Amino acid sequence: MSTIPAAPDGVEPLVPVQEHLEGILSGIAPLGRVEHVRLADAAGRTLATSVDALVDLPSFDNSAMDGYAVRQADVAAASTDHPVVLTVVADLAAGPAAEVAIGPGEAARIMTGAPIPSGADAVVPVERTDAGTTRVAIRQAPRPSQHLRRRGEDLHAGDRVLTAGMELGAGRIAAAAAAGLAELPVTAVPQVAVVATGSELVEPGAPLGRGLIHDSNSLLLASLVAEAGCAVSEVLRLPDDPRRLREWIGGRAPCDAIVFAGGVSVGAHDVVRHVLAEFGTVAFARVAMQPGKPQAFGTLPGGTPVFGLPGNPVSVAVSFEAFVRPALLTMLGRAQVRRPSWHVVAEVGWCSPAGRRQYMPIALGSRDGRTTARPATAGGAGSHLAGGLAAADGFAIVPEHVEVVAAGDLVEVAILW
Ligand SMILES: Nc1nc2c(c(=O)[nH]1)N[C@H]1C(S)=C(S)[C@@H](COP(=O)(O)OP(=O)(O)OC[C@H]3O[C@@H](n4cnc5c(N)ncnc54)[C@H](O)[C@@H]3O)O[C@H]1N2
Ligand code: MOO
Ligand SMILES: [Mg+2]
């Protein structure tokens, strides 16, 4: 077995989280391949190039109400006590429509979404009339342009609808459809291999002998990769056997990134550290965070980016959030690789280690109309508390200089799931 690149506590300085992230991102580039997908297949993809509206939206003046299209001047004096009676000359439903015009003293019955007849400049809702079909009594004077939806008031043809790097969610796909687009240019999906290491690991559901544990990191990572908009090309478990790991690395199927969990610390059998160190292209760092301190990042022969995350399950979740997700989103071509965060009220107090950024799994709540956060489990930030992830809505991110979070303090939280 090769020599362990030693990194005992207190010997190597801790690297700030931001510096470690910047080192990773400087070694990651967008995949750059573009595909075209139908809107129905666009959910979760990333827009490769900006797109513009092909039509005006709305594409014709139309009614916002079921009622009567009128000439506002005709009915300016209308009231409940003194209704103005108009002749109904057309009945307009939403759908294919012929040109219609109304003259003085005339109205058209009109439904929401139907084109406004020429000559009309306001719509009176049916509730403000006697609902007549040949003649209608208007009981309220409309404001000029009342309940008219104007051509192009939302978008004009040629206006930018979506910008490159956006994640395509329901609202953006709907906007593209409304703007006349049928398909969108999207970026290629990174293929990510997930490898959990540990001779103690057995498949979830398998009987547990002494010393064995159910592998939760594979599922955690595969879910996180998918949630980040990437594809899981392979998921496997390997024992702490350098030969097996070298074999897999040598014969692996092509992919765009590899995420290892476990075996990156300074233990005698920390196989990922031993084997990745042999390549000379993977750096090991002690990062100023809790959990998630031991980290590995680099490339394998052929240039595939490789992450070695510490094996404790909460450390895996935190490390993915802090380092892998931003890298995968960069490969995807996302404009925004940082997850939004909010400041909420700490419901109870807790401690945070000096000089390290703490990622505390939290559960959200509310008190006196304000959103609150409290540690998801009594065990707090214990990196082995996989069961506690069930109660976690996300993480509180406590800055390096803070050693005590007091009840009532504002804390930054990122909501993950
Ligand atoms: N002497 C030192 N020991 C340790 C240090 C240190 O600085 N000096 N750091 C500790 C910290 S912090 C962490 S985090 C862990 C990281 O360890 P490894 O990345 O080497 O991970 P393992 O040793 O393989 O496993 C750690 C822990 O996690 C459990 N595990 C591993 N894989 C899975 C899985 N797929 N599903 C569920 N649980 C898993 C494993 O059984 C261990 O309990 O090192 C500390 N030690
Ligand atoms: O820093 Mo370790 O990652 O505590 O769990
Ligand atoms: Mg270890």
From TrEMBL:
Keywords: Magnesium, Metal-binding, Molybdenum, Molybdenum cofactor biosynthesis, Transferase. GO terms for biological process: Mo-molybdopterin cofactor biosynthetic process. SMART domains: MoCF_biosynth. It is an enzyme of class 2 (transferase). Its cofactor is Mg(2+). The keyword Magnesium applies. Residues 193-330 form the MoaB/Mog domain. GO terms for cellular component: cytosol. GO terms for molecular function: metal ion binding; molybdopterin molybdotransferase activity. The keyword Transferase applies. Pfam families: MoCF_biosynth, MoeA_C, MoeA_N. Belongs to the MoeA family. Catalyzes the insertion of molybdate into adenylated molybdopterin with the concomitant release of AMP. PANTHER family: GEPHYRIN, MOLYBDOPTERIN BIOSYNTHESIS PROTEIN. This is Molybdopterin molybdenumtransferase. It comes from Agromyces tardus.
